[in-house]
Amino acid sequence: MNKEFLKKIYSEIRKFNSIYIVRHIGPDPDAIGSQIALRDSIRLTFPEKKVYAIGQSVSKFKYIGKLDKIEDDISYDNSLIIAVDVPNMARVDGLAIDKYKNVIKIDHHPFIESFNGIEYIDTSSCSACEILLDLINNTRLMMNESVAKTLLIGIISDSNRFLFNPVNANLLYKVADLIKKYKLDLQGIYESIYMRPISDIRLMGYIDNNLKITKNKLAYIIIENDIVSSFNADPAGASNMINDYSFVEDFLVWLFVTKDEKNDIFKISIRSRGPVINELAAKYNGGGHIYSSGARVKTMEEVQELIDDFDKLCKEYLKNK
Ligand SMILES: [Mn+2]
């Protein structure tokens, strides 16, 4: 954490009367939580400012809070754009970031490209929401129970209940303080994030039984949409199940392929507990964290190529170990 830098972000926020907060496409609870928590904290601190959290809303994440629809054009000179939880311009949802003059990026993903403004990147944070907690704790930005709860949702979700790295004592102290101070209902938060229908569990059963594992310890599955719908699930939900396979000794890297019919592309979710995967994911129109990435390709041939490439990555990793 860089307190001086956080104070600089606060003073930028103070300067502008209209602020737009964006995040990545295909949002998760950390992406939506971080933009909503930041918006609400700024509104609480500066009631006269116009602050919006924009981007496509997702019905299953409505419990986190409501996003804003904007009708007016965003002023080039007088508006501040804050991008949270997103490392590259192409993945920003809702506006073309390169068209704006005053931009702040607040992110915990490895650096990909500059947004031509202030960049605060902390890859030692488990989530964008953890960085915003630091921002609020170290500046005059205000917090209330609702902001605290939203931040906690992002932290819990991105760290998968404090399972994934980076999670450390410092984070647990910060979270404990938050829960105590705002009397947060941890059980209720867990329920809103993790409650799911039996059809999801049955789909996981299908995945368990059909995951292919190579001799180089790569696991993969292509989950066809008719299979997904036969379990009453949706492709995005199916690809999210990838996070439940973190501690299987038979594989090092695992990837789930689903089809996005609307955009006519294959989406690949990739996780690792060994090889660094985001660089190879970038070759396939993707990227992300070193052990948690995504990719998008157009054809089945490219899917096969990607699987072969990740298999080679595992092979190299095993050889060098
Ligand atoms: Mn995140």
Give the distance, in angstroms, between the N- and C-terminal Cα atoms. Answer: 32 Å
Overall residue-averaged pLDDT value: 95
Our Rg estimate from Cα atoms comes to 20 Å
Residues in helix, %: 40-55%
| Broad structural category | alpha/beta
Which molecules other than protein and nucleic acid are bound? manganese (II) ion
Low-confidence stretches: none
What does this structure look like?
- The chain is of the alpha/beta class.
- The chain folds into two domains: 3-193, Alpha-Beta Complex (inorganic pyrophosphatase (n-terminal core)), CATH 3.90.1640.10; 198-320, Diaminopimelate Epimerase, Chain A, domain 1, CATH 3.10.310.30.
- 40% of the residues lie in helices and 18% in strands.
- The strands form two sheets. Strands 6-7-8-9-11-10 form a six-stranded mixed beta sheet. A five-stranded parallel beta sheet has the order 2-1-3-4-5.
- Strand 8 and strand 9 (265-272) form a beta hairpin.
- Helix 2 packs parallel to helix 3, helix 3 (128-137) runs antiparallel to helix 4 (145-159) and helix 4 (145-159) packs antiparallel against helix 5 (169-182).
- The longest helix has 21 residues, at 300-320.
- It starts with a helix and ends with a helix.
- Manganese (II) ion binds next to loops.
